[in-house]
Amino acid sequence: MTTQQIEYVIMLAEEKSFSSAAKKLYITQPSLSQFIMNLENQIGLQLFDRNSYPIKITPAGEIYIKNAKKILDIEKELNDEITDLLNMKTGNLVIGATSFRAACLLNQSIAAFHKKYDKIKVEIIEAFEQELGSLVQKGDIDFYIGTGHPDLKLFHYEILATERIYLAVPENNPINNKLRKFALSENDIITGNLRFSEIPVIDIKTVADEPFILLSHDDGLAGTVERICENSEFNPLTYTTVKHMETVFSFINSGIGLGFVPDSFIKYGNSRKHPVYYALDESVSCNDIVLVSRKNKYFTKASVEYIRMLKQMIGFGTWL
After folding, report:
1. Would you say 278 and 182 are in contact if contact means Cβ atoms under 8 Å apart?
2. Which contacts of 1-9 are long-range, i.e. CB under 8 A and separated by 24 or more positions?
3. 239/261 Cα distance (integer angstroms)
């Protein structure tokens, strides 16, 4: 079973069309058809049912493809280990993160890594956490930065830091006048000053009549917001739902409604304008920021070195 055979069969299985697969493989359709026919003759079993459209994979094809993918995984790990022997003069590092975490949490560490290892190609895959977990499982990314505690049967994770979620209210909302003694500015949160340390937490039911901008996607932050609301038996009056934290923040600043914002975004989102912030019960409003990888995955030297640098920067308080 050669790499070429595997690539051709997998491509055909994905495309379910000889013409489409041949186009992506940069070969002619007759060449691909003849190749598959020769392979099936060699095996003695038919891998594809050509009598249907789109073409179907036979039981023999399912077995072939399942084991072929295992071979590709082994070959990839072999190549990764060989790359290590080249003393990081070449290689790839693929990191996953949600859009806002990629922008807020990774820039300094990526810059430091690139400065030291400029021959290593670093790729950032931005997606929701559920999709990032799937990409880690498939081996498409080396690891991702997320929140919460993933399933230990499937993943390995390390806690990197903790973030806290704050209630955010548009600056021009009259309710801020009533809640003045609870109010925090972005500077209070960023510097951790005396007001920040002494401010009482707010009862979220105080804003029960206010419209909210909420995350619609089942992501780490959305889960924390749900936990905050359940803990206070609070059902937010939802004005609209959006997919990204950047949109939530923009809508709050525009006065559309209230929302929930993590301190990592407050500190490192590079925003000039901020809403008014209110602290929530710390026992339910905090998230662990974690580095997640596939269980028992082989880490390339590039991955190990980047993670080492990341942890070192966190320890010195300079990773962001």
Report:
1. yes
2. 1/68, 1/71, 3/72, 3/75, 5/35, 5/39, 5/68, 6/68, 6/69, 6/71, 6/72, 8/32, 8/35, 8/36, 8/39, 9/36, 9/39, 9/47, 9/61, 9/64, 9/65, 9/68
3. 16
- In 3D space, the residue among 245, 242, 212 whose CA is nearest the CA of residue 229 turns out to be 212
Predicted pLDDT at 219 = 67
The predicted model scores a pTM of 0.72
Residues forming a β-bridge with 241: 214
Residue 261, token pair as written in the block: 């914002």
Which among 179, 173, 185, 223 is positioned nearest to 205, based on CA atoms?
179
| CA pair distance 262, 245, nearest whole angstrom | 9
Helix/strand/coil for 134: helix
Characterize the bridge pairing of strands 143-147 and 92-97. Answer: parallel
Task: Render pLDDT for 31-61 as a digit per residue (tens, 0 to 9).
Answer: 999 999 999 999 899 999 988 889 999 999 9
Answer for the pair 301, 117: CB distance below 8 angstroms, yes or no. no
Specify the residue for token string 């050509």. 50
Q: Which of 233, 239, 231, 181 shows the shortest CA–CA distance to 211? A: 239
Distance CA 233, CA 114 (A): 47
DSSP track, 204-251: GGGGTTSEEEEE-S--HHHHHHHHHHHHTT---EEEEEES-HHHHHHH
List % helix, strand, coil for the chain (3-state, nearest 5): 50, 20, 30
Question: How remote is the C-alpha of 28 from its chain's centroid?
Answer: 38
CB atoms within 10 A of CB 139: 15
In the 8-state DSSP scheme, what is residue 39? Answer: H
The dihedral through the CA atoms of 101, 105, 107, 112 has a sign that is: negative
For residue range 184-202, list pLDDT tens digits in order: 999 999 999 999 999 999 9
Residue with tokens 């991702």: 144
- Dihedrals phi, psi of 4, to nearest 5 degrees: -65, -45
